[in-house]
């Protein structure tokens, strides 16, 4: 992806996802991840459509954890707009815990699917 991407408005529900994170360090790291994605410094893994999570094939995931030890406990879900091929911006879809596919469930709700 080009380094000239913009960070568009957050999807409805994303602010509530941020607010639901447990502490300031986790909230800040989630937002810092968006900046790194926007600047082309990191990229997440493409998602797909699954029975357990729903259709997220236009989205990507990125794991993070301010703790830094063990498996990351959080996922950030985002997508390129208008699509990955013609991307001019990224859209923050959802953020939440990895456990119990929390972030994916939030993404489905935030996308209205």
Plain-language structure description:
The protein has 113 residues and is of the alpha+beta class. The protein has helices at residues 14-20, 24-38, 102-111, and strands spanning 6-7, 45-46, 49-50, 54-55, 60-64, 74-81, 89-97. Strands 1-7-6-5-2 form a five-stranded mixed β-sheet. β6 and β7 (89-97) form a beta hairpin. The mean pLDDT is 90.
What can be said about the biggest beta sheet? Answer: 5 strands, mixed
Question: Reading side by side through the largest sheet, how are the strands ordered?
Answer: 1-7-6-5-2
Q: In terms of per-residue confidence, which ranges show pLDDT below 50 for 5 or more consecutive residues?
A: none
Helix content: 25-40%
Distance between the termini: 26 Å
What general form does the structure show? globular
Keywords, separated by commas or semicolons:
two-stranded antiparallel sheet, 27% strand, 3 helices, 113 residues, alpha+beta, 7 strands, five-stranded mixed sheet
């Amino acid at each position: 992806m080009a380094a000239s991407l913009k960070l568009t408005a957050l999807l409805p529900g994303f602010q509530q996802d941020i607010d639901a994170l447990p502490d300031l360090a986790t909230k800040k790291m989630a937002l810092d991840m968006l900046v790194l994605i926007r600047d082309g410094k990191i990229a997440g893994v493409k998602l797909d459509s699954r029975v357990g999570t729903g259709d997220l094939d236009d989205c990507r995931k990125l794991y993070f954890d301010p703790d830094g030890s063990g498996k990351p406990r959080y996922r950030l879900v985002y997508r390129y707009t208008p699509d990955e091929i013609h991307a001019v911006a990224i859209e923050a879809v959802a953020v939440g815990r990895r456990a119990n596919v929390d972030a994916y469930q939030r993404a489905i709700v935030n996308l209205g699917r």
